[in-house]
TrEMBL record:
Molecular function via GO: electron transfer activity; heme binding
Location in or out of the cell: Cell membrane
GO biological process: respiratory electron transport chain
A Pfam family hit: Ni_hydr_CYTB
Topology versus the membrane: Multi-pass membrane protein
Gene3D superfamilies registered for this protein in UniProt: Transmembrane di-heme cytochromes, Chain C
Species whose genome carries this gene: Paraglaciecola psychrophila 170
Domain Cytochrome b561 bacterial/Ni-hydrogenase: 6-181
UniProt name for this protein: Cytochrome B561
Cellular compartments per GO CC: plasma membrane
Length: 226
């Protein structure tokens, strides 16, 4: 058993950039005034992060792939039973329960960002697709945008409690591997490298798509917002 790479660079970058972006989104609406334009740019970037991680879940390295950690109810229950037993076994990647976090976060943050595109603050700023929606859709999107964030924060609290419990209760550190990428595992379980060329190409493609989505495709914004 030695330290080997488990979390590739894209997974770690995604995680810590997502944390920064969500903090930024809260800060630009709840603390700063007149920072909607920054809120929009961070929102577009966050949407890009989400799309990137979705694709990385199919094309990424071993433990980044959905296939390595999406488990059914049986696996989740037997994992919970194993925690109660004396002989604990730890997974190299996400555990079956923790593996549910990524899809939940991708759906919630994805919906948050998409609903933002259709949201207006009713004063000066409107997302690029606000004008193309009718008032019913606008109302739904505004509602989603105001409420999903709280659900997301509830999930983050559970996430942090689980990690703290692993550290203090089970004496198992999950945080350092999410920073360095390395865990103590058998040779055969580590990944060789982060597939950075593939990640770079995917990131460029996602960047171009986001630019098209928010700059080229939207209908012209009506004058009354200014
Ligand atoms: C806005 C706050 C946060 C969100 C939305 C979030 C979300 C996530 C997601 C989606 C994953 C899965 C990563 C992937 O497979 O790509 C993850 C893993 C992880 N996060 Fe967070 N996270 C947040 C904050 C934090 C903080 C503050 C810490 C550390 C103190 C942390 C520590 C970890 C660790 C250690 C893992 C890996 C867990 C494992 O080994 O299975 N997270 N997080
Ligand atoms: C994942 C990315 C995003 C997050 C986490 C986020 C988060 C938030 C939060 C917490 C608020 C305050 C809601 C409240 O009033 O209680 C807000 C408001 C707002 N957001 Fe976002 N947002 C994101 C993306 C976007 C995007 C992409 C746009 C538009 C392009 C946008 C447009 C707006 C607008 C216009 C408001 C003001 C709504 C109002 O005053 O009723 N957001 N956002």
């Amino acid at each position: 058993m030695k330290k080997y790479l488990v979390w590739d660079i894209p997974v770690r970058l995604f995680h810590w950039l997502l944390v920064l972006c969500l903090f930024g989104q809260w800060f630009t609406t709840e603390v700063l005034e007149n920072a909607m334009h920054i809120h929009f740019y961070i929102g577009y970037f966050t949407l890009g992060l989400i799309i990137f991680r979705l694709l990385w879940g199919f094309f990424g390295t071993r433990y980044a792939k959905f296939s390595s950690f999406i488990a059914g109810p049986k696996a989740i229950i037997s994992y919970l039973q194993s925690l109660a037993s004396k002989q604990k076994s730890y997974t190299t990647g996400h555990n079956p329960l923790g593996g549910l976090l990524l899809p939940a976060v991708l759906i919630l943050v994805g919906l948050q960002a998409i609903s933002g595109l259709f949201t207006s603050d009713d004063i000066v700023s409107a997302g690029p697709y606000y004008d193309s929606a009718n008032s019913v859709i606008q109302g739904w999107m505004q509602w989603l945008h105001k409420n999903i964030f709280d659900v997301l924060m509830g999930l983050v609290v559970i996430h942090l409690l689980a990690i703290t419990w692993y550290k203090l209760g089970l004496k198992h550190d999950l945080i350092t591997p999410m920073l360095t990428g390395q865990k103590v595992v058998e040779v055969s379980k580590g990944i060789a490298h982060s597939k950075l060329v593939k990640a770079f190409m995917l990131a460029i493609t996602v960047g171009i798509f986001i630019y098209w989505l928010v700059e080229i495709n939207p209908p012209p914004v009506e004058e009354y917002y200014y």
